Amino acid sequence: MIYKVFSIGAVTTVLAIAGQTTLIGNNQYYHLDSLSLSNGKVMDIITINGPSTPPFMVKRPVVANIFSNNESSESSESSVESSSESSSAVGFLETPAFSWSFGCSATSGAMIAGYYDRHGYPYVYAGPTNEGKMPLDNSSWPDWTDDGGDTRHQTPLSATHDGLDGRVGRGHVDDYWIKVDNSDDDPFVTNGWDEHPYGDCTADFMKTNQTTNYDNSDGATTFYFYNNGDALTAKDMEDYNVSSKDGAYGLKLFFESRGYTVTTLYNQKIDAVEEGGFSFEQYKAEIDAGYPVMIHLQGHTIVGVGYDENETVYLHDTWDYDTHSMTWGDSYAGMEQEAVSIVHLAPNIVQNDFNKDGIPDILFRDEESGKNLIFFLYQTGVRESYAYTTSISSDWSAEGLGDFNADGITDILFRNQSNGKNLIFFQKEDGSRESYAYTTSISNEWKVAGVADFNGDKIADILFRNQNDGKNLIFFQKEDGSRESYAYTTKVSTDWTVGATVDFNNDGIADILYRNQNEGKMFISFQKEDGSRDSYTYLQNLNSNWIVAGVGDFNGDKVADILFRNQNDGKNLIFFQKEDGSRESYAYTTSISNEWKVAGVADFNGDKIADILFRNQNDGKNLIFFQKEDGSRESYKYTTKLSTKWKVIK
Question: pLDDT, tens digit, for every residue of 238-255?
Answer without folding.
Answer: 999 999 999 999 999 999
